[in-house]
Amino acid sequence: MPRDTIFAPASGSGKAAIAIVRISGPQTRFVVETIAGSLPGPRQATLRIITGPEGPIDRALLVWFPAPHSFTGEDCAEFHLHGSLAVVRSLLSCLSTFTDCRLAQPGEFARRAFEHGKMDLSEVEGLADLIDSETERQRKQALRQMEGGLSLRVAEWRQALLSAMALVESDIDFSDEGDIEPATSRHAQRFIEQLISDINHVLASARQGQRLREGIVVIVAGPPNAGKSTLVNALAHRDIAIVSPIAGTTRDLIEVPLDLEGLPVTLIDTAGLRESTDDIENQGIARARRRVAQADLGLWLMPPDYDGQPPSGPDWIRIRTKADVSQITGDGLPISVLTGAGMDQLRARLKNEIEQRLGSGDALITRERQNQALTRALLSLSQALQGLKSGGATELIAEDLRLAARHFGEIIGVVGVEAMLDTLFAQFCIGK
């Protein structure tokens, strides 16, 4: 049964110089011919008067993308209109009058691209990350994923795996001629050993890829009145947290996303860690302790005369605050937010620590789903290799290799991903 034709704004809401409305599906050609007079040449921006039931809507650029050479793989068109809210609303109202045409659901254009083989699942995830990217490194990593960085590597692995499977399954086909020949076994082992080595190398940087995508979590902790909120405001270059000399002012977690010279950081201000009789403050302290355990890195702030130790959790950068009002005698980097003393050194240290945890930004695995699928593939390959080395049953070795191939397919969305597709595409905006 023919599917609906979908349409949606593809640009941001609000008044702008240009607004883009896109349409995709079997009715696209008819719709364009009806409201624009005729089809322009493929992929050629053509100036047209767009006319609705009540008369002209706008003079706009029209771009026609015939199937299959379009983003979705279907007939598509884009209307580049003047960015008036009234103009966009009028065109959307006009498009809704056509039979089997409706407003797109979130991510429906991208989903149709996936379903028509224009993008695999890892590329779609890269597209989602590119849209959400806030720093330069996130943009570069997401773009590499969207352009098929992981897909190409998986294709190479699948090809090597097919070679190993052919060698092993040839023994099943010719089982009446004896066990696996030593040369055949050695060839299959070499393919599998190289695969295991490559996968281990990729998995080693998986945590860095996920951290870059999600952002490093840096928690700011310490006793009351250590200057935590003051430092958070200074690093954020704006007043985020309330600053007060009264102990217990900060009672809940305050999360601040930062772009630290291209590095994605979530900075978290916490309640001062101390013993308190105030129930509300104690709730904030309990939340702070839980968040400390989950952080990637911590800034432990200590007043000049403080000699306590930070709680167990992340690696801590020890900082002595208020260097402008008192002589610093203990350990820790001395800083004064008021005078700026030590702040450049702190930023440099923080950047260095974060870069070590993010790596060079060339990780192929950026999501936990990908990590788990690749880990399952590695386990199946390891079992197959052990079977070859120990002279195990050929049928079991072949089954382990087939399972590894299935797990490779999960990474790019060939098998076993139906349950998560709705969640993924719902993360996109309506016009994507």
Describe this structure in words.
The protein starts with a strand and ends in a 7-residue tail after the last helix. The chain is α/β, with parallel strands linked by helices and 432 residues long. The longest helix is centred in the middle third of the chain and has 25 residues, at 149-173. It folds into 3 domains: 5-117, Gyrase A, domain 2 (2-Layer Sandwich); 123-205 and 365-413, tRNA modification GTPase MnmE domain 2 (Four Helix Bundle (Hemerythrin (Met), subunit A), Up-down Bundle); 213-358, Rossmann fold, CATH 3.40.50. Helix content is 46%, strand content 17%. A hairpin with a 2-residue loop joins β8 and β9 (263-269).
Features:
six-stranded mixed β-sheet; single chain; alpha/beta; Rossmann fold
Biggest sheet record: 6 strands, mixed
How would you state the average pLDDT, rounded?
85
Number of strands: 12
CATH topology of the largest domain: Rossmann fold
Work out the radius of gyration.
29 Å
What is the count of distinct domains? 3
Summarize this structure briefly.
With 432 residues, the chain is an alpha/beta fold. Helices cover 46% and strands 17% of the residues.
Topology:
Blueprint: E1 5-9, E2 18-24, H1 28-36, E3 46-52, E4 55-65, E5 76-82, H2 85-95, E6 101-103, H3 108-115, H4 121-132, H5 136-146, H6 149-173, H7 182-204, H8 206-214, E7 216-221, H9 228-236, E8 254-260, E9 263-269, H10 279-294, E10 297-302, E11 315-320, E12 333-334, H11 343-358, H12 368-390, H13 394-412, H14 418-425
Parallel strand pairs: 1-6, 7-9, 7-10, 10-11, 11-12
Antiparallel strand pairs: 1-2, 2-5, 3-4, 4-5, 8-9
